[in-house]
Amino acid sequence: MVRFGYGEVRKNEINTYKDQVVKDLIIKGTATADIALTTEEMRSIYKKMYEINVMGMQDVALTGSYCSKEPYNEESWQMTVDGAIQSLMWSDQHCDVTNEADQLLKLRKFIQQIVENKEAYKELPEAEGGYE
Predict the structure, then answer these.
(1) Would you list the domain boundaries of the chain?
(2) CATH architecture type of domain 2-122
(3) For residue 9, is pLDDT > 70?
(4) Is the dihedral of CA 122, 124, 129, 132 positive or negative?
(5) C-alpha torsion angle, residues 16, 118, 88, 94 (rounded to 10)
(6) Number of C-alpha atoms within 13 angstroms, CB side, residue 75?
(7) % residues pLDDT > 70 (the chain)
C-alpha cells in the first residue's frame, strides 16, 4: 500500500491489501475504484521490491539538505513480504532525496502505471484544480 501526494495531502492511494485505488480529484474530493492486480502483475512488483531490497531500507527520508520547497512530494508505504511488514515514509520537502527514496518513487510510478492502465481507473473522473 502506498499513499502519495503533495505535502500532507496524500489522498492518492494504491492499496493491494484491499484491492482499491483512491484518486485525488483535488477540488472535487476523491474517487475510489476496486482494482485487483493480477498474479503476474503482483509478481512483477515483488520482483522490483526484491531488486531494491525494500525490506532492508531504513531512514529513507534523511538527506541532510537544508533547503525547502512547496509544494513537495510525499509518500508513505506499508509492505508485507513473507509475513514481515515494512513501513516507510519520504518526502522531497528539503529538495534532495536519498537513493532509497528515489528507488521507492520509481517503484510507485511502476505500480501506478499498471493501475492507470486498468479500465476501472480510466473510468474515474478527472481531477480539477491544482496544488500550489
Answers:
(1) 2-122
(2) 2-Layer Sandwich (3.30)
(3) no
(4) negative
(5) -160
(6) 24
(7) 90
Q: Is the peptide bond before 125 cis (omega within 30 degrees of 0)?
A: no
CB neighbour class for 90 (10 Å; exposed up to 12, middle 13-18, buried from 19)? buried
Round to whole Å and give the CA distance between 3 and 10. Answer: 6
* Interval 47-101: pLDDT, tens: 999 999 999 998 777 666 667 777 777 889 999 988 999 999 888 777 677 889 8
**CA–CA dist 93, 70 (Å, integer):** 7
100 class by beta-carbon count within 10 Å (0-12 exposed, 13-18 middle, 19+ buried): buried
Average pLDDT, the chain: 88
Q: Please report the DSSP string for 80-131 in residue order.
A: EETTEEEEEEEE-TTS---HHHHHHHHHHHHHHHHHHTSHHHHTSPPPBS--
DSSP 3-state of 39: helix
